[in-house]
Batch of 2 targets.
Target 1
Amino acid sequence: MAAALKFVFSSFAVRRDVLFLFCAENMKFGPASRRIVSRLGGRLRGAAAADHFTGKSGSSLDVIAPAGLDVPRLVVIGTGKGRTLTSRDLTKLGGAAMGKLPKAAAAATIFAELGSGVLKADQVADLALGARLRGYAFDLYKTKRKDDDEKGPKRIDLNFACSNPAAAEKAWTRGAAIADGVVLARDLVNEPGNVLYPGEFARRASALTKLGVGVEVLDVAAMRKLGMGALIGVAQGSAHEARVVIMRWNGGKRGADPVAFVGKGVCFDSGGLSIKPAQNMEDMKGDMAGAACVVGLIHALAARKAKVNAVGAIGLVENMPDGKAQRPGDIVKTMSGQTIEIINTDAEGRLVLADVLHYVNKRFKPKFMINLATLTGAIVVALGQEYAGLFSNDEKLAERLIKAGDATGERVWRMPLGPEYDKLIDSKFADMKNTGGRSGGAITAAQLLQRFVDKTPWAHLDIAGTGMGSPQNDLNRSWGSGWGVRLLERLVEDHYER
């Protein structure tokens, strides 16, 4: 299994660990790091010259058993020109350092300072967050491992040498809560469909009660009583019954309207009777990445005791072909009373979200609703895997999401909404149909969702390109990225906590 990580915060000192230093261009070090470098005489600059290392951003210099230091290895990571680094930059640096840690290393000391000087407590916590996220691995089902993995340490101690260890450790309490939320989301996305079916997903979400979260689970009988015909229709072809899970964190003022997050939780999507091609269908175990993000977010908010009232709601189904499965041409009645003609059973996520959005809006009357869903391949065609698609009926909410995305690196790109697109989902037999064809596919899906939010400020994040199979980077080496937890946590912290 992947080694467990233990985080320690201490004053600047050299221990017999792998040692990490940061430097800006032209080999500019912070004061504590300069004292370390001075012990090497000119040997470090000689090694840097031989390797053409100058401290450019993203570069690194690896020195084994450096003479003059009682450490097994010295790694210097470049931070680029001497500009002020943002929280996002520091998180990436922490991930980059973790990525340079040798597999056999059981301990490392990271000097938490840049060429411009020592880091503040919250900046040290950003470094630690990056290291934690980069250190994640999902190998639960590997029974045979490579020899190198077997010989590796069972635990890695990461020591962050800094100017105020007590303050850094306190700041890390918040960072650890966010990291735990991301890890939870990643674990959920990475699980196979035979393990994480709707009932099991609901059970795992219910574990949030340990953090003080109120959790309700609606079964099919309860959903039928509420009139959730669209959601139930998606699930009726599966041996696993649908569930809706409502998670409530009340950390704000008593009676204050909550903020609300809704996630698509299709635990496996075969496409139903409109079955998908066999190639890459295994990836459809990740069609619940939106729901995974919501669970991870509520975990993060509760673990750091966020001063906000928040609701997380996830619709959990399996979309399977069966004699009981819904057919193209069927018409379902949603909880809102609106009817939808099923054109393609593989456009199922919007049906799940339609009922859950209406339910949350009607019951909780939130300040805003944000839903996340691996909803369309069309958004991947439009934006690739670096940005999620953002659709919104509210300018302020959209602007805040864009800024939170820029701050965390979980970026969103605003996409259009407009009544002209509604024509594409007009139905001859019902109030709407569940797909408008290939043209503007991500937009017509959003147009359908918008019909179930009334005038409540709302945003839809299409995370088909970012939630699963996402690009490998300094913070993520996992198939399931946990995308969205840090974005939405930042949104809440910046704008909605009292």
Target 2
Amino acid sequence: MSAVPDAAQLPLFAAGASPGEFRVRVSARSRRLTVRVYPGGRVEVAVPRGTRPRAIERFVSRHRAWIEARIAELASHPQAQEPPLPREVRLESLGRTVEVRYLKRARAGWRLTADGALEVYGDPGDVGRTRQTLRAWLTATAREALEPWLRALARAHGFTIEQVQLRRQHTRWGSCSRTGTVSLNVCLLFQPQSVVRYLMLHELCHTRHMNHSERFWRLVGEYEPDYRALDRALTRGWQHVPAWVYG
């Protein structure tokens, strides 16, 4: 039985299971199988390279009760009842709530007004296209706010970074390459400031230790003693990301 390809859509396993789909993501950095449930009920299983489908079946079967409970929990979250297009966006990491105004125009676009509101242009009836415009604004806001924050932390603590990339990722909050490029998820804008600061320090520490060894965690602890609690908060952070960000 061959290993699964780098990304695959597979049915939820086990006899009598409710119908559903989940995504299997092969990760070169994964050392074990993990599962995550996102708002809207999307389930993703991250697996190390070379994992065979049978092992994934057994893993999902063992965790089925948790998966179904998590799907139900997210379905009851206020986010599940949010409108297709938001009237305001709370950027928790910036301590700011942005009012959103939709204006019908021939050409899609956005701008910030003098009073701090976001004007979104286009056809508000085209929800998919309008959400694309919202995501463009979100990425621009993240670049303006998160990159200077990261660089300031690097200078303050003696870290060296080369480039900063802002991405809208579904499974990672951040990453650091061996060449000193740090990538940040634009969805960090929806997380508390303390959590964002921890994630940034976490990635900066990877510029010295490209692993999760004891030395790496000791270094993280020097800059953020409460890193364990903040890491757990970051794991739960996906529930704070609005549905329009992903689709």
